[in-house]
């Protein structure tokens, strides 16, 4: 359980994190989604006591992180998989962490196996690791102390699709055992695949939050029939607002309403489903667009022209 | 398998011994783990000073340079004139360079390699980590000096064996203690520069400016200015620190050493510590 309460972090006049409040529940994988520079990493650093907040607070398992007597045993943290001494071997990095936490020696081997790093890879120095291998090592470090909470910043970065699937299964299993997982990403797709709950941050503020289903449901319904125009007219007649794109009819109504309306009009649907989180994607794209470099340059040019 | 975790057997046993948590039957409330003892942090930090190639060779260089300096002294000097003090001088100069660098790197390597991210999430109390590093640095300093003493002693015996003269042991315990103190002060100053700059090059350059450039400036100033010539010992830490190597300090000189160490070592150390405690770890 992670509770973040009105967290604000300012750097001079710049507000990196602005009154952020949300909770990551036990048994759930919470995705922390936002474009680069939105304040995800800063929020996570504050969570684990590496950055002092300007105001507000974060409690992990009911306490500030700094008050945990042996944090590694309760909270697994991966902030940056590349932040390791390049001259240490993967095994050595795990051994140091295991010793700090006071874990038995065998634990290191268990974790190497769990993240599928071979004996040979574990003996290699980290400077020779690919980003994917570093992420696996970072996950191993986070899981080492058998924690109840995982805080992972961009853990899927550098993983191939099989790796992302592996991570999803791993985090799913962790959540199913009652653990709390908070992971960040700047990629909507990654979060969609892995998370149960989604918190969206943009420019330091929380702009949306809820279960994945809720956020996807708000995107509306997609329906197909032999003739989309006929279906559209039937739904409009039932009082629904529709639009047609790619031969499919979109409405804001839920699945049941659309299905009933089509049935009442005697139209055989060929497809009926939620509209793929188009709404979430739209919102996310808008957020991203604001922080896009080209967009910024365009604005500057316009400003200069004006 | 000595671990109680993640084994199927453990998941079926409802009793949990010493925080043994089962994969499936994970209890909602778990025992709060014991705090990390300082001794463990000490051990981990010591290991981190040796477990990379650069760290290992830096430590090994203490032994290697001592041996090389001793062998060169035996080979190149007028052997009839050699005493234990000659060896102390030749072994001491590489020590006075390597030890402070160890002091600097003990801190800065956490930042240059960004391992501080892991270190301070596993042990959020930064003061304890810094404390452990300081203890390790001081112990390494003392042990290095003992190694240097031992290597020098072997050199002195070897010389005696070659020349047939009796070995001259002209370093009394108090002199050795003073030399150790002088080197430990240098190490603490290096450590302090590490805390202040959190950058290896800046820390190392800073140390050499302090140890090699500032004394020259002070000397130049003293020759131009009578007041400085008379009173520099109250401000220039190196003036008294260098005395530690070869003369017995008077009471006044001890007070001067305390005062200058306060200005140059203790005060910057406290400032550096405060900076590290408050700084954002990225």
Explain the layout of strands and helices.
The complex is a heterodimer of chains A (306) and B (282).
Chain A: E1 2-11, E2 14-24, E3 29-33, H1 40-47, E4 55-60, E5 75-78, H2 90-101, H3 106-114, H4 119-122, H5 131-143, E6 149-152, H6 161-176, E7 180-185, H7 188-194, E8 197-202, E9 205-211, H8 212-217, E10 221-225, H9 228-237, E11 242-245, E12 248-251, H10 255-264, E13 269-274, H11 278-291, H12 293-305
Parallel strand pairs in A: 3-7, 3-8, 5-6, 6-7
Antiparallel strand pairs in A: 1-2, 1-4, 8-9, 10-12, 10-13, 11-12
Helix pairs in contact in A: 2-3, 2-5, 3-5
Chain B: H1 8-12, H2 38-50, H3 53-76, H4 84-112, H5 116-122, H6 126-163, H7 173-197, H8 200-224, H9 226-231, H10 237-246, H11 251-278
Level of helix content of chain B?
Answer: over 70%
CATH superfamily of the largest domain in chain A: P-loop containing nucleotide triphosphate hydrolases
Characterize the largest beta sheet of chain A: strand count, sense, and whether it forms a barrel.
Answer: 6 strands, mixed
Which oligomeric form is depicted? Answer: heterodimer
